[in-house]
Specification:
Blueprint: H1 7-15, H2 52-70, E1 74-81, E2 84-95, E3 100-101, E4 108-109, H3 116-128, H4 156-160, E5 174-175, H5 184-189, H6 207-221, H7 225-234, E6 272-273, E7 283-284, H8 285-296, H9 305-312, E8 336-337, E9 345-351, E10 356-362, E11 367-373, H10 381-397, H11 409-419, E12 421-425, H12 437-440, E13 443-447, E14 453-454, E15 468-472, E16 475-478, E17 484-490, E18 493-499, E19 508-510, H13 517-548, H14 556-588, H15 598-628, H16 633-655
Antiparallel strand pairs: 1-2, 1-11, 2-3, 4-7, 5-6, 8-9, 9-10, 10-11, 12-13, 12-19, 13-14, 15-16, 16-17, 17-18, 18-19
Length: 665
């Protein structure tokens, strides 16, 4: 899906000026907030007044350079305050080739998983209507069955808080060919992801479960999901450009922004999100402003105040304490917290391949902030800009008033040492080939020379590894930012941790010793070296024997075992190379994570059953003959090493999904 040939696009973008575009004359009517005079001089640390004049000036100085330096085509920003639109700004291009500017009223962006907020709103409407119960087994609403976990069912409350326990579902998330898409019920019924956590205990983000919730809304309402949200949410809120339909209705297609990997690359086709309720929304910035206003104003037009309050601040007595790591952000019912500077903020982020979005609601301040980009940008720049823009907005208009505490150096060093080790992200697959990422993607926690906590995989917006200072027992703050990291301690041991950005829907648990990359990765690399040397020694020894006219040292069954071992070593290396190539290509191009790759997957898995198991058997036969025949110690030792290498490879393949014998993942 990613193409080259980007020079002309880059020149077009850099040569233009990313000015802010005002809403076009055909925009749906919206009442702007009363203008507030621009603030006077501000003392260091004092907040700026959140006025249209100050905000527009700040955004116009911030985003054009951010887009150019990040190789991002365009962006839309809307901010609402006290039930009105404070500003709506478009930057850069909706389409680079035609120089079509971003219009915040008419240009459609794909907010990705921010779409889930519409789905969760629909669920709560049906709860309010008495057709759904958040704590009832969802099988009561389905025409297929979700198996229990240790006798415990799935509930909508668990689905809305991402604690239903499902493993990650990756296949057919996004396609570009409408003929390759699946209807929602077909997508859900073809495979139910395995439940790998006890319900309610572990946040693990799930697109599949969100799609299931949308399907439930459609069933209990008797209305297709796309039609339901149009009739019950978009029409009441006058969201005239919003649609979950894929492809878009003909009237909306000309308004759609093009999506780009980078602005300097050709545009990608319209992305079709197969689990549609989890991420298929298309909408203008101003329509998303209307949605924010509805939720900030106690559900006005779509939910009762009581239902909205439950959604925005779900009762803690209905939450399993194991799923929380205070004081980090937590899930509400669909929204998740992005609290900052002591402010109560609920939010959602969203990403497709090309569009990257965030929506934040400052509840007490009655302020909503929405930004969406139509390019990932250079090195994923949109992610860093999205997060930093929100933090800078909060610092400018709602700065912190308190100060962090500090844990004494000796205690902080001891706590940091308790965190050291390898950790597994709760959002992962276990029952198919993506489980191999659980080996190569383990998160390592260490300490630096001063004994301070270091997580090499966590980096700030500038790319530097974040430095963490302990501000309370087992709570750390990024030395140069807002992020907090905290640990859950049980019986004097750290058993789980997370950090603010992901803590509502993802945690890190300690990797079991049997699956730790700390020993498995070195063992695997050494095993590959043994197999490679074994394969290379065969032609090398043949050449030497021919040159010096030396006969081979073994005969009969020993010769057969010798040759078979070399053949299987080569086969094992080729198969592992095939797996590596497939995984790299598949996770570099999401279109490969689809039914189109099923034949390749079957070939790799069936070949693995033959080669990985067969190599152990043949290497064992060769080792037995070598020791039985009384060969030299070097030959006996090497035969044992080859057997050990084959066993390590088989252990990795069986433990991390390469022998799963399934094309569901």
């Amino acid at each position: 899906m990613r193409k080259t040939g980007w020079v002309a696009m880059l020149a077009a973008l850099v040569g233009g000026v990313a000015l802010a575009q005002a809403p076009g004359p055909e925009a749906p009517p919206l009442t702007p907030a009363p203008a507030i005079a621009a603030p006077g001089p501000v003392t260091p640390g004092a907040p700026h007044s959140l006025s249209a004049a100050d905000l527009d000036s700040w955004l116009d100085g911030y985003l054009p350079y951010a887009l150019h330096s990040g190789d991002i085509a365009g962006a839309v920003v809307t901010v609402v305050k006290d039930g009105q639109v404070l500003t709506a700004r478009g930057y850069g291009y909706a389409d680079v080739a035609s120089r079509r500017p971003v219009d915040p009223a008419r240009t459609l962006f794909r907010p990705g998983s921010v779409s889930k907020l519409v789905t969760w709103t629909a669920v709560m409407q049906q709860v309010e209507a008495g057709k759904l119960d958040l704590d009832r087994d969802v099988n009561a609403y389905l025409d297929f069955r979700i198996p229990p976990y240790d006798g415990k069912p799935v509930t909508l409350r668990e689905i809305m808080t991402h604690t239903a326990g499902f493993e990650e579902a990756m296949k057919d998330l996004i396609v570009v060919d409408p003929d390759a898409s699946l209807a929602l019920d077909a997508y859900l019924k073809r495979w139910v992801p395995r439940r790998i956590f006890a319900p309610g205990t572990t946040p693990a983000y799930s697109n599949w479960a969100t799609a299931l919730a949308g399907h439930i809304v459609a069933r209990v309402s008797g209305t297709p999901f796309d039609t339901y949200v149009e009739q019950r949410i978009f029409v009441p809120l006058d969201m005239r450009t919003a649609s979950f339909r894929q492809p878009l209705p003909p009237a909306l297609r000309p308004l759609m922004a093009s999506g780009y990997p980078q602005a300097s690359a050709p545009a990608d086709p319209f992305e079709i999100v197969v689990p549609a309720p989890a991420g298929s929304l298309s909408a203008s910035g101003l329509d998303m402003a209307k949605f924010m206003i509805a939720h900030l104003e106690n559900g006005r037009g779509i939910l009762s105040p009581a239902t909205a309050a439950t959604m925005h601040d779900s009762p803690l007595d209905r939450v399993d304490p194991a799923s929380l790591i205070p004081p980090l952000n937590r899930m509400e019912l669909g929204f998740f917290e992005t609290n900052i500077n002591g402010r109560d903020v609920i939010a959602h982020l969203g990403d497709t391949n090309d569009f990257h979005t965030s929506l934040h609601l400052f509840r007490a301040e009655h302020v909503g902030f929405y930004v969406s980009f139509n390019s990932a940008g250079r090195d994923g720049a949109a992610h860093a800009i999205r997060g930093q823009l929100f933090q800078d907005f909060a610092d400018r208009y709602f700065p912190a008033t308190g100060r962090d505490g500090r844990v004494d150096a000796k205690t902080a060093a001891a706590h940091a040492r308790m965190m050291v080790g390898r950790w597994q992200n709760s959002r992962h697959s276990e029952s198919a080939f993506p489980a191999i990422l659980n080996l190569f993607g383990q998160t390592e926690v260490t300490v630096d020379e001063d004994g301070a906590l270091v997580v090499p995989g966590l980096k700030g917006p500038g790319g530097a590894v974040q430095r963490w200072d302990e501000i309370a027992p087992f709570v750390w703050r990024d030395r140069n930012g807002h992020d907090r990291l905290a640990a859950q301690v049980v019986d004097g041991k750290v058993v789980r941790w997370s950090f603010d950005l992901v803590s509502p829907f993802m945690v890190f648990d300690r990797v079991p010793a049997r699956l730790s990359g700390g020993w498995l990765l070195p063992a695997l690399y050494l095993s590959l070296a043994v197999l490679l040397l074994t394969a290379l020694y065969w032609p090398a020894s043949w050449w030497l024997r021919r040159r010096y006219r030396t006969p081979i040292a073994v005969q009969g069954a020993a010769l057969k075992a010798y040759r078979a071992t070399r053949i299987m070593a080569i086969a094992e290396l080729l198969l592992l190379g095939g797996w590596a190539a497939f995984v790299i290509v598949a996770f570099g191009d999401i279109a490969m994570l689809s039914g189109a790759s099923d034949p390749i997957l079957w070939l790799l898995q069936v070949s693995g059953a033959v080669v990985f198991v067969g190599t152990v058997g043949i290497a064992g036969w060769n080792a037995w003959l070598s020791w039985r025949d009384g060969r030299g110690w070097a030959r006996r030792l090497w035969s044992a090493l080859v057997l050990l290498a084959a066993l390590v490879v088989l252990y990795v393949a069986s433990s991390f999904g390469l022998l799963a014998m399934t094309v569901h993942y």
